[in-house]
Amino acid sequence: MRKQFLIEQIRTKKSYLCVGLDTDPALIPPHLLEQEDPIFAFNKAIIDATLEHCVAYKINTAFYESHGLEGWRAMEKTVNYIPTTHFKIADAKRGDIGNTSTQYAKAFLQQLPFDSITIAPYMGEDSVKPFLQFEGKWAIVLGLTSNPGAADFELQDLKTESKRLYELVISKVATWGTTDNLMFVVGATRSDEFINLRKLVPNHFFLVPGVGAQGGSLEEISQKAMNKDVGLLVNVSRDIIYTSKDTDFAQKAGDKALQYATQMRSYL
Amino acid sequence: MRKQFLIEQIRTKKSYLCVGLDTDPALIPPHLLEQEDPIFAFNKAIIDATLEHCVAYKINTAFYESHGLEGWRAMEKTVNYIPTTHFKIADAKRGDIGNTSTQYAKAFLQQLPFDSITIAPYMGEDSVKPFLQFEGKWAIVLGLTSNPGAADFELQDLKTESKRLYELVISKVATWGTTDNLMFVVGATRSDEFINLRKLVPNHFFLVPGVGAQGGSLEEISQKAMNKDVGLLVNVSRDIIYTSKDTDFAQKAGDKALQYATQMRSYL
To answer: For the complex shown, is ipTM > 0.95?
Structure first.
């Protein structure tokens, strides 16, 4: 998906919501477990109910891989079910030496019809570049994440001789691609850093996880990190998809997505 | 696999060779493409021919994911075909927030019978710990890799206020596990750093890629990084598995594996 089309979708719907499909059979409504493919049955219902309130879906590949072949099949069916109006993210956190990253890029951007894939930057330039070679496809590189470990490790926040590590990572990675094929993951719980981040990369889209179950504030993110193109995809997973365990789960998820979208509309 | 058993295998076979199954249909002997599952047919023949010369196999998951469901099935068949005498590595470079890493750990250490999985450390402690919760299973964390990007990025080599980033990563990660459930990836092309690394983590196993196609020296690694338990698994992928494109490919791969093992024997 090209950037201009994504921005048009956001402007038309007045929403920059991404719904995260971290689908776990232990957490979905029990009545679905009787279906032949409970994961896909759940996703299909969630997608149908949330479609008009969001502009993107993020599939967390770990939740599919943990079910082996059946999980991979459910992921394939899910990404193929999402219409082309919506930006499709493989939240896969891949990254390896060049020839291996090329294989991952093929897996998600060619073999599967994702628009984008999340990338861990630890192995540097040749591990990221293979993901930037596909017209209309995106690499979304980890910048500053929202999990406890990001701080515990003191890695992303580490002070180098010049700047903190995440600043160096983001500044450097930004030179490898353009605002048309590169986004950054920035955790919602790090809103104190958003203004600083926008100085480094004013024009890139940010994929922002951490709203909802992880406690990030949608208001703060929107105030501090929005740019002239909106420039935000804010992901909510558990707080939307697991609103109810009853037969009304999809409707309840749709209602919750609408609440987020309504809040977003007020910031646009 | 427990550490003591792995060490016994190394001592008995006088080899610390790991064969990397980066299986690419474009590079395997053309006559195999007529088979129902060319990737597995190739792997099975390679495993049969190299089994007695190596102690471990490393499956590079990217090469399987790039073929979707069929690739995943070939990976499943391959890991199930490797006997329990051999240490099985999922070279998957995973790592995400805690609940997601738990799913990846299930995928590779429970759903699939791997002994270990490679991990990218960028997201810190809660992204690594879920992989350390399985008796007899291992996390192999990226320390200092051998690819050009590791230097281009100047990330792993970055000078922090106290030490270089990779030193900090390795020292910190070492506190999260033990020498019985944690190894480090250290690229063969970084042999200048091996002596320094052994000061930081004298007793951990290193998984060393980068010998063969990437140009690392087996002799230097062995001289500088071996410890009292040997402490090394040296991986060779392309230089062994793609020795011939003819019907004798497996025999040629076996011969090449034997050459490496013979060289290793002289260092033990």
So the answer is: no
